[in-house]
Design brief:
alpha/beta; Peptidase_M14; Urease, subunit C, domain 1; about 30% helix; four-stranded mixed β-sheet; metallocarboxypeptidase activity
Length: about 375
Amino acid sequence: MENKTLKALFETHKESSLFGRYIHSQNIAPLLDKMKDKMRVIEVGNSVDGLPIYSITFGSGKKKILMWSQMHGNESTTTKAVFDMLNIFLEENHEIEHILTSCSICIIPILNPDGAKLYTRFNANKIDLNRDAKDLSQPESIVLRKVFEDFAPDFCYNLHGQRTIFSAGNTNKSATVSFLSPSQNPERTITTTRKKAMEVISVMNVNLQQQIENQVGIYDDSFNINCVGDAFQASNVPTILFEAGHYANDYYRERTREFIFQSLIISLDYIASNTITGDYCGAYFNIPQNEKRFYDIVIRNVKGSDIAIHYLESLVGNVLVFVPKIERISDLSGFFGHKEIDANGSGVFGESCAALKVGDEIDFVMVNDEKFSFKV
């Protein structure tokens, strides 16, 4: 599918009611109601705090794909992209009709509704659901496992979001989108199951490189049976980790949302139109592994040192705010900033000309009487 077509589909089907990073059950409730006439929307379980967990199932084909988003409650970009994609499947569209006839798709749009409401990685019991695949100690983990066993997918999409710290390799290119075909054993054997996931990732990467060249990364594939992707891969179901990362000046992840949307459509189109054997996985190994080379802001040449600032994401009422916090004051020659300021050897000060120190939360700095604001 051509970029022009993908961009047009996104522009005409983007779900306007979903914006920004704070997405939770109340946001998607009216969207689920709208779908019930054309898709199977059912409550598949409840969270620790009793919030409903839903699945959406559609399509009539033999190839079965299971997706879940917001396993980590504060990773919402993929949820937005899922609903953008669903808007296409709600209408008659010859561009994607073959996907519906070749595939059956089941989506859990918010697996961790408690975490989504509180804007936290964890569930209400402060458990990381992506480390609970073996123990199944949490109701949300049990829900996902039951849907996995009942639906018996041929492919799994594990949809996540990643921090702004990641670079695509040891470069100054942000990892805007990252993928992984998880290991299915401690030896990290390149099995046929892994190759099938790698083949699909390779196809998505071809499309992304045309738009965000050198801004796609691969996660480390160390094996952990407690991680859901590893566990499902170990069950011989090709599983793909999607990670929505940072694009320049896109802290609300609206541009990244489009790249995830495109990747979802591209991958479904490829699965629907081909027999996936894993024979065409070679390009996967050319994608660089993620490194941690970025800070949100770097102030260079501050009297022989550099200052690194990260944004803390804090929920204030129902509003997500980005709070700039000083993380390091040292030589940062091996790191990059999404925004960089050159102090040219001058002093840098905070409010009321205060000296800066690690741990300070600051909205701006003064450099040679010039104010630099850090508000998103």
